[in-house]
Amino acid sequence: MLSFALPMILGNLLQQCYNIADTLIVGKFLGPDALAAVGSSFTLMTFLTSILLGLCMGSGVVFSLRFGAEDAQRLKEAAHAAFRLIGLLSVALTVLSFALLPRLRWFLQVPETVWPEMETYLGLVFWGIGATFLYNYFACYLRAVGNSLIPLLFLALSAGGNIALDLLFILVFHWGVAGAAGATVLAQYAAGLGILAYCQKTCPHLRPSLHRLPGGSYRAIFGFSLLTCVQQSVMNFGILMIQGLVNSFGPTVMAAFAAAVKIDAFAYLPVQDFGGAFSTFIAQNHGAGEAQRIRRGLRGAVLTVVLFSAVVSGLIFFLAPALMGLFVEAGEEAVIAAGVRYLRIEGAFYVGIGCLFLLYGLCRALGKPGMSVVLTLFSLGTRVALAYALAPRFGVEAIWWAIPIGWVLADTVGFVYYGLRRRQLLPPRESKTDR
Questions:
Q1: How far is CA 105 from the centre of its chain?
Q2: What does the DSSP 8-state code read for residue 289?
Q3: How far, rounded to the nearest angstrom, does the alpha carbon of residue 430 sit from its chain's CA centroid?
Q4: Would you say 378 and 410 are in contact if contact means Cβ atoms under 8 Å apart?
Q5: No. of H helices and E strands in the chain?
Q6: Rounded-to-integer distance, Cα 399 and Cα 386, Å
Q7: Which end of the chain is more exposed for a tag (fewer CB within 10 A), N or C?
């Protein structure tokens, strides 16, 4: 699992790099209002792309199951069905995003001083939704069949290009937040079109086809992908609601949250990707009937996540001021202080979200994606309810405390569910010899 997860972790760290590049360069050279605009836009884009990512992840489970069962024909049918369904949705999502752009200021409670730059940024990055689909679809397919290295290589090229274009467009051409958005979109298309070309050359069965597919292929993709999509979008919609509440506290807190969230995501991203590798491992072994390997994999994965999360929590606690200083000028003391407080509260509980990522992957791989939705509702329902109930009385720190409380509650529900249903969830056949 670790060897398979490592390229995924490195790849998504690179993906975070070009998200962080926008935030760091904008914060340093364009000021707090521009930082607030880009940061709030990032939360919205995460929500939108999570819909596509959830569909791709759900499809990846189907690919892994059929790959593990060595059913090449049904794997090919599932791949074509997924491409058609998710591709159509990406087009619809792009159109809908542009149509709703004027209403987003009200929904996200964006201050008047921040909205013009945020509107400019979003008006450009929405064009990258199609690229997000291309990259995530082909990356999920390759990972499902055991190739996690190629997606990393395309992301490395994309991340390096994004950072170079950020510097060129902002520092040389002085295009402001529009330059940051343009750099991101171009980098996304470099990764999306690049991995498309690679797969067309090396995987002939993925080339476009107008052949009629069996209805069962669409049903399998729809069944797994829909609930995974719901889980991902509900999770990120809850984060979007938190963003709206954060925005109500003004530009200083918005800027602090924008920077701290990037640090936060970077810190727990390895356990998120390890959860994805764990899901692929479980799905392949579930398809092959390897119950013992699933049990051993779960024990090892939990231990790995707990140890890693404890180390990262300690580093974030002590390094929080220096990390915030990377994104904002030293004179912005209020922004730095607010960000440090967020990181030290939420960052102490990374083990909670690490175990939650494992539970999401386990439920998807064992054919129970609906339980992932339930866990998400427990996590985010608690977070949103506590934040909106307590923040007006106790201030913005109530929002920060609500996040780990939601994680812990969802973890408790998930592990109790697995403990009670373990015999029904695992494959009935005895384990084969380890391969």
A1: 24
A2: T
A3: 35
A4: yes
A5: 15, 0
A6: 7
A7: C
